[in-house]
Design a protein that fits this description.
The protein has about 160 residues and is of the alpha/beta class. Helix 2 crosses helix 3 and helix 3 packs across helix 4. It has a five-stranded parallel beta sheet with strand order 4-5-8-1-9, with helices on both faces. Helix content is about 40%, strand content about 25%. About 30% of the residues are buried. It contains five helices and nine strands; from the N terminus they run E-H-E-E-E-H-H-E-E-E-H-E-H-E. The chain has a domain of about 110 residues: Rossmann fold (3-Layer(aba) Sandwich), CATH 3.40.50.300. The radius of gyration is 15 Å and the shape is globular. It starts with 11 loop residues before the first strand and ends in a 7-residue tail after the last strand. The longest helix is centred in the last third of the chain and has 18 residues.
């Protein structure tokens, strides 16, 4: 029997659950439907396509090691971004000695700019708070429809 969720369409989507429950696949399917139906949302006076760029947190953190702050600005400026596997990245990445919690900074910048940041994660909400701090946790929880995926690992 499925669960019913009441979603706020002005907020991002966060899928949380154990490994192999279909979080990433669900976001890919959602993105395909958004493209087919040309779904948009209103931000101020603008209509913005809801289709999102989906990038692994590990790749985003790795880009910082390679490109430094240019990568922060790149990921901070997508109209819609989905961070896949939030929490799987090394949170203390360095670029020529400059250390940063890359995902934390991107979430902060995107929040300040009023941009949607979707995510998937194996982490429980309490662990997200431990890794990214109260401020980012509050922003994630306040601006995201959290959907718990409790199924078994489909890959096993």
């Amino acid at each position: 029997m499925g669960h019913k969720y009441k979603l706020d369409l002005s907020k991002a989507i966060g899928l949380i659950g154990k490994t192999g429950t279909g979080k990433t696949m669900t976001m890919h399917v959602l993105n395909d439907f958004i493209l087919i139906d040309e779904i948009k949302y209103k931000k101020g006076d603008d209509l913005i396509h809801l289709r999102f760029k989906m990038v692994s947190a590990i790749v985003i953190a790795g880009d910082y090691s390679k490109d430094g702050y240019d990568s922060l600005f790149k990921y901070s400026n997508y109209a819609n971004l989905c961070i896949d596997d939030l929490g799987a990245e090394n949170t203390n990445k360095k670029h020529f000695g400059d250390a940063a919690n890359v995902i934390q900074e991107i979430i902060e910048i995107r929040h300040s700019n009023g941009l949607l940041t979707h995510f998937t994660s194996n982490l429980k909400p309490e662990r997200i708070n431990e890794i990214y701090g109260d401020r980012v946790y509050s922003r994630i929880m306040g601006n995201t429809n959290i959907i718990q995926m409790n199924d078994a690992d489909y890959r096993l």
